[in-house]
Amino acid sequence: MSSTGHTLLVTHSTFARHETGLGNPERPSRMRAIDEALAGPDFTGLRREEAPLRDDAEAAILRAHARAHLDRVRAAAASASAGPVHLDADTVVSAGAWEAALRAVGAGLRAVDAVLDRGSGVANAFCQVRPPGHHAERERAMGFCLFNATAIAALHAKATHGAERVAVVDFDVHHGNGTQAIFWSTPNLFYGSTHRMPWFPGTGAASETGVGNVWNAPLAEGDGSKTFRAAWTGRILPALDAFRPDLVLVSAGFDAHEGDPLGGLQLGEDDFAWVTSQIAEVAHRRCGGRIVSMLEGGYVLDALARSTAAHVRALAASAT
User: Fold this and answer.
1) How far apart are CA 66 and CA 165, in angstroms?
2) Residue 311 annotated in active site
3) What are phi and psi of 309, to 5 degrees?
4) Which of 89, 111, 258, 320 has the smallest count of CB within 10 Å of its CB?
């Protein structure tokens, strides 16, 4: 079964009001750069919605995170009116962080609802959100991430829509340790990732396999298009295809772009377009093209904007 319809873009102005402080690369201007890129004539066909604040957000978060973690972030946000609160050296809770984090979760929930409702006219979705999420573990915020919106969306698909087999694939330059940890012991949740290693956060070896549901393909500093594409075609995509997902979620980080200060890989926009198209081919074959993509990293503004545009353009092409 193939999907036809619109690509849904879910975002909100709140994401630019989470102030992380001078020198932090995960900054509000990331949203403005993407806004400008997706305002072009190539993107007039996108269906656009604002990321919601949802009544079910807390219950959804608690499927992936411990209550103590939710309460810790909430308390930090309540204190942030007096100034930003650092949960670790990288991870900041600002006065705007709580609403931004809840709307990031809400974006993922809304996108899953739309993509899994074939009456919606939505074939796939991209959630332009911040803070990112894939480093957030069940009981810990880290690496700019407060709540793991992608894992939360995956668990929502299972709990609310009856999706039996849900996959997350991740091409951020950093390994999604949080998603891997949350999925680790659940056979019908799949996690596949390319990432630089050794590098932050120190996880992601090929030997880390969960219960046969985790597929890591680590890359070395300086690796570029050839090695990246070989990792996907030789390891991640065949495993994804064999998993037969009912829904594919993407942790779409663009910090593997050449020149990104937090990266060290040598990818270009064409690589992100290519991997998106390859993921979409598997999704069409296995689950009617159902894809929800969530923004993760990417810190050089022009490269982030171009790469996101290439990714969304490829999603839109696969939706028709």
Assistant:
1) 23
2) no
3) -60, -40
4) 89
